[in-house]
């Protein structure tokens, strides 16, 4: 099917479309729209072969949906399957991303990827450094909106107090999922629509 | 991972063992040629049955292993097939599968299917998902057709095919449904600029539009179109003709604008409809249809509102007031990923920062008494002020309505006097909400809660206005009813005298009928009510649009362009750009809908006007928001369920049902207009239909059912059912709360346990260190040293203790050392193995280790 996809040019082949519908939380229109948006990111001469080409991170972040997102780089790195880890996205990576962020995705999928996004160093746990980076992302770039060191300490301390159940000073995946799954608006806010 | 590797090795050896048989098998298949195709299939099935257990295992493993392992597994499978098929070639006379094997195979197929359908729930990458999906699909396809025997096989295959088709159809249908939802992109754009709270208004607007479309379809399809197509044409009878006195001005715009003239005598209003029992060649029962549609408009709306409320409630029951994770939730769930506009993102950053700071401050000084008192005082003050405002506006409307009643009796009145009530109501609606908002700033609620308060207050204001308006209208109706009695006699008399006179003139010839325009007629209070509602709706639309145009667009233009030549910064300073007023808009929508519900019985065309209004306001407001509003300063997420809106809508629906039900049940319809003319009450139309159109026994049954002896027990039964269901729901709620408490307790316990463990951990580790042959510490003495230094800091409580102790006692450590020593020793003596350590008392140890309670002890020992 991979070869068929490449050969058939700028329209998504039907069987691939059916498979993607089976495998993602997206419906037909959303997949087609995603395909359109994705091929718009590519230079003209590569558009015929959109399924097999990767969009470099810098271009991918020009999507208006990601432009204002403080986690844009993390999102790219989490969903990219690039071998050289440069954050470049293929169409399937893009679909993975949209599926995880779609309205109908389950809480498990969402929290799985949310954890990956928040895990900046990729070591499978959220430690103090990760949390600190996360806070900095959430409070923005402006100097006046930054938290002071003491506030940061206090905040991280409180967070660990709440959600670090096994008291090892870090938040692991299950602790994270426990916390997030009980939040009333995690599922509604962890959402990107094309 | 080691496991996997081992297994794969095993598999390899396995395949090597099998290689001769594979070759053999290969030959055999070649020989058999075509037949092998069919037979091989069966044999492969047989092959499958043997290693089912392995297979299940491997299937389970699939979930964990990666693609490589996957390939390995494929190989393994192939091997199995070959090996067993070679085995089966020895005994190939077995034609069919046994029941057990079949069941097993079926189970496998089912499992694969399940895997396919749940694959999207797995957080795998697409490449892996694709490969697993293809494999599973191939498996299912291969073995699905082979299941079942003889006739059963065909049936099974057919069933499978239908199931597939059904799934495909469902998917297509879902796709179609989502395609039919309009304005996705528009709303998404707004959402990305203004956050989900503003978007929730537009989603609500869209929902309203859908509901109104259905109502419009009902009314137009079943009432207006039949009447226009099959009813008597315009001008054929008095109720369908403009009276002679009005005919000269009936086409003037100013008259039409007031919904008089030709519009008043059109199918848009109640009065136009004829009371003929059936119309046209279809024998369409129009009065009956009119009545039923009027009822079903309410029925449908109630159903839809309650259904969506229930669905929202279902979604939002999962949690709620769980105060355990305030900080974590702020941290992990506060970003709204839909935000795509840098400006909004900046606002969001700011609001997140403030919320962090606020919660930190709250945490630090959680009980500030003075502030709470101040806040309480301010809140009470705000409420008092707002109640004053409400009372004032209520009185103002009452006053204006009274005045308008005196105006209505006068002859020469100007435009202002005629429209005073509407103007005052619109002005109140325009100026009170901002006033409330200003007052609400005193209260300092979270914006989401503040929004609810604001909504509640404006709701009270509008409700007061609406009901004053209704009361005035009722006065009007009563007046009209009194007038009607008079006119009835006059009409009767006129007709009679006309007939008499014509009978006198031409005795034999039938008299030419009186021109319908000349017949004196009653005031037709139903049409008057309908016209009032239409007028109110139209003026509401105009006021809304003009407010948007002036308050938002002109202001934005002014601020944008005059800013170049102004003394201060207009954009950042005083007028600035407007924010989108969610509460006002939502309430406007809700009240507008209430008006539609109330008016639609007497003005069937009203729903059409409303559909137009919603359609235009979707585009207009989207444009206005995008062009001239700025995001809220505190961007906040809409609460997940907009049940609050729905609750308001339900309340309004109920309140608008009351007056309509009252007029239907207790006022007599006009004698010369509308589908129910000539009847005592409007609902008589049902009785009439039952008596004339249904067989006798239905009428009998109906009369039995209508018997109070049956109705009262039925109501009683319903009340009991409600009581019972309520009790059950309460019990469930209590059980829920109980479970929640239990869970919380368990969690606390666990936390405590872990805490204790953490504090005792160093000790335990010491023990371990001592007991183990100390490989770690000996091989890397430096590490051990580091550990020793670190060990007091391992846990927070220990650290605190240690620090406090150091601060307290470091200057005169030597002297104080002794009293500190005993506690550790007491502990240390407890485990039997440690008795040996007893001879090393604390006094002998270097100073630094004394205050740090236990950990220093054991750790250091091996080095001595």
TrEMBL record, chain A:
Signal peptide: none
Provenance organism: Rhinopomastus cyanomelas (Common scimitarbill)
Keyword Transport part of the UniProt annotation: no
Identification of the protein by name: CIB1 protein
The EF-hand domain, residue ranges: 106-141, 151-186
Record field: transmembrane: none
Lineage: superkingdom: Eukaryota
A molecular-function term among this protein's GO annotations: calcium ion binding
This protein's UniProt keywords: Calcium, Magnesium, Metal-binding, Repeat
SUPFAM superfamilies attached to this UniProt entry: EF-hand
InterPro entries: CIBP, EF-hand-dom_pair, EF_Hand_1_Ca_BS, EF_hand_dom
Automatic annotation (TrEMBL), chain B:
Transmembrane region(s): 207-229, 288-306, 380-401, 421-442, 454-474, 601-623, 644-665, 701-725
Biased composition regions of type Gly residues, renumbered to the chain: 855-864
Protein's GO biological process: detection of mechanical stimulus involved in sensory perception of sound; vestibular reflex
A GO CC term assigned to this protein in UniProt: plasma membrane
Keyword Protein biosynthesis recorded: no
Entry membrane topology: Multi-pass membrane protein
Biased composition (Acidic residues): 1-10
Keywords, comma-separated and alphabetical: Membrane, Transmembrane, Transmembrane helix
InterPro entries (UniProt xref): TMC, TMC_dom
Domain TMC: 524-639
Pfam families reported for this sequence: TMC
Biased composition (Basic and acidic residues): 51-82, 743-753
Subcellular location: Membrane
GO molecular function terms listed in the Swiss-Prot or TrEMBL record: mechanosensitive monoatomic ion channel activity; voltage-gated calcium channel activity
Cited PANTHER family: TRANSMEMBRANE CHANNEL-LIKE PROTEIN 2, TRANSMEMBRANE CHANNEL-RELATED
Protein name: Transmembrane channel-like protein
Gene coding for it: Tmc2
């Amino acid at each position: 099917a991979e070869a068929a996809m490449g050969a058939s040019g700028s329209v998504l082949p039907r069987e691939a479309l059916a498979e993607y519908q089976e495998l993602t939380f997206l419906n037909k229109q959303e997949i087609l729209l995603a395909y359109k948006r994705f091929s718009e990111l590519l230079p003209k001469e590569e558009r015929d072969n959109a399924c097999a080409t990767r969009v470099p991170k810098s271009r991918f972040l020009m999507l208006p949906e990601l432009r204002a997102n403080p986690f844009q780089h993390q999102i790219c790195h989490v969903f990219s399957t690039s071998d050289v880890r440069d954050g470049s996205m293929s169409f399937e990576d893009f679909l993975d991303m949209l599926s995880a962020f779609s309205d109908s995705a389950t809480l498990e999928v969402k929290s799985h990827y949310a954890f990956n996004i928040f895990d900046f160093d990729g070591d499978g746990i959220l430690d103090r450094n990760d949390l600190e980076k996360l806070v900095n992302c959430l409070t923005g770039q402006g100097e006046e909106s930054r938290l002071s060191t003491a506030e940061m300490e206090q905040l991280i301390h409180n967070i660990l107090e709440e959600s670090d159940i096994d008291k090892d000073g870090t938040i692991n995946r299950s602790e994270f999922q426990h916390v997030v799954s009980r939040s009333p608006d995690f599922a509604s806010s962890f959402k990107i629509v094309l | 991972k080691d496991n996997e590797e081992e297994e794969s090795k095993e598999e390899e050896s396995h395949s090597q063992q099998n290689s001769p048989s594979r070759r053999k098998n290969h030959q055999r298949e070649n020989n058999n040629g075509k037949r092998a195709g069919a037979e091989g299939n069966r044999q492969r099935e047989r092959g499958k049955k043997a290693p089912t257990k392995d297979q299940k295992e491997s299937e389970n493993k699939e979930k964990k292993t990666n693609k490589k392992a996957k390939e390995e597994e494929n190989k393994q499978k192939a091997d199995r097939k070959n090996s067993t098929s070679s085995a089966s070639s020895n005994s190939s006379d077995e034609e069919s599968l046994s029941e057990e094997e079949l069941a097993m195979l079926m189970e496998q197929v089912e499992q694969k299917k399940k895997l396919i359908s749940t694959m999207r729930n797995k957080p795998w990458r697409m490449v892996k998902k694709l490969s697993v999906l293809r494999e599973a699909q191939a498996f299912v396809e291969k073995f699905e057709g082979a299941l079942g025997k003889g006739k059963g096989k065909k049936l099974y295959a057919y069933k499978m095919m239908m199931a597939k088709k059904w799934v495909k159809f469902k998917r297509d249908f879902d796709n179609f449904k989502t395609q039919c939802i309009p304005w996705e992109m528009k709303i998404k754009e707004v959402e990305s600029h203004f956050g989900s709270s503003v978007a929730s208004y537009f989603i609500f607007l869209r929902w309203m539009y859908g509901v109104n479309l259905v109502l419009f379809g009902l009314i137009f399809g079943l009432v207006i179109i039949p009447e226009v197509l099959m009813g008597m044409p315009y001008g054929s009878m008095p109720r369908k003709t403009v009276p002679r006195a009005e005919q000269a001005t009936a086409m003037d715009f100013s008259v039409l604008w007031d919904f008089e003239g030709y519009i008043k005598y059109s199918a848009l209003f109640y009065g136009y409809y004829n009371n003929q029992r059936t119309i046209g060649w279809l024998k369409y029962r129009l009065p009956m249809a009119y009545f039923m549609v009027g009822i079903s408009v309410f029925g449908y709306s109630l159903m839809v509102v309650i259904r969506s409320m229930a669905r929202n409630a279902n979604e939002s029951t999962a949690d709620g007031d769980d105060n355990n994770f305030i900080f974590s939730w702020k941290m992990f769930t506060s970003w709204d990923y839909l935000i795509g506009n840098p400006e909004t993102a900046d606002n969001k950053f700011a609001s997140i920062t403030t919320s962090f700071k606020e919660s930190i401050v709250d945490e630090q000084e959680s009980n500030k008494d003075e502030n709470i008192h101040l806040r309480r005082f301010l809140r009470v003050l705000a409420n008092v002020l707002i109640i004053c405002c409400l009372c004032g506006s209520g009185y103002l409307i009452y006053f204006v309505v009274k005045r308008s009643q005196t105006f209505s009796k006068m002859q020469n009145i100007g435009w202002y006097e005629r429209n005073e009530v509407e103007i005052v109501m619109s002005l109140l609606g325009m100026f009170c909400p901002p006033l409330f908002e200003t007052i609400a700033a005193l209260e300092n609620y979270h914006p989401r809660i503040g929004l609810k308060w604001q909504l509640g207050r404006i709701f009270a204001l509008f409700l007061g206005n609406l009901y004053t308006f209704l009361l005035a209208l009722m006065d009007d109706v009563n007046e009209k009813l009194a007038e009607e009695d008079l006119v009835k006699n006059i009409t009767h008399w006129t007709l009679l005298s006309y007939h008499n006179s014509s009978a006198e003139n031409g005795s034999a010839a039938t008299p030419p009928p009186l021109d319908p325009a000349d017949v004196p007629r009653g005031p037709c209070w139903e049409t008057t009510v309908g016209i009032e509602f239409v007028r109110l709706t139209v003026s509401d639309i105009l006021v809304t649009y003009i407010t948007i145009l002036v308050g938002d667009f002109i202001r934005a233009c002014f601020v944008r362009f005059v800013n170049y030549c102004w003394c201060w910064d207009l954009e950042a300073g005083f007028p600035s750009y407007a924010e989108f007023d969610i509460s006002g808009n939502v309430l406007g929508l809700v009240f507008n809908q209430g008006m539609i519900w109330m008016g639609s019985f007497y003005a069937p065309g009203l729903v059409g006007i409303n559909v137009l209004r919603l359609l235009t306001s979707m585009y207009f407001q989207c444009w206005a928001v995008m062009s001239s509003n700025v995001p809220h300063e505190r961007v906040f997420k809409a609460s997940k369920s907009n049940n609050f809106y729905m609750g308001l809508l339900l309340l309004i629906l109920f309140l608008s049902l009351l007056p309509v039900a009252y007029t239907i049940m207790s006022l007599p319809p006009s004698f010369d207009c509308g589908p129910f003319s000539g009847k005592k009450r409007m609902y008589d139309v049902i009785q009439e239909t039952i008596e004339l159109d249904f067989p006798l026994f239905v009428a009998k049954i109906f009369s039995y059912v209508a018997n109070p002896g049956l109705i009262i027990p039925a109501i009683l039964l319903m009340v009991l059912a409600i009581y019972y269901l309520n009790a059950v729901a309460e019990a469930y709620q209590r059980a829920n709360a109980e479970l929640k408490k239990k869970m919380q307790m368990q969690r606390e316990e666990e936390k405590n346990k872990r805490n204790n463990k953490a504090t005792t951990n160093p000790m335990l580790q010491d023990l371990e260190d001592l007991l183990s042959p100390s490989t770690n510490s000996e091989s890397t003495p430096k590490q051990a040293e580091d550990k020793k230094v670190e060990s007091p800091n391992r846990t927070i409580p220990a650290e605190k203790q240690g620090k406090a102790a150091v601060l307290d006692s470091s200057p005169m450590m030597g002297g104080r050392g002794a009293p500190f020593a005993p506690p550790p020793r007491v502990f240390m003596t407890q485990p039997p193995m440690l008795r040996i350590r007893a001879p090393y008392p604390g006094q002998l140890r270097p100073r630094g280790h004394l205050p740090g309670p236990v950990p220093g002890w054991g750790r250091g020992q091996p080095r001595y």
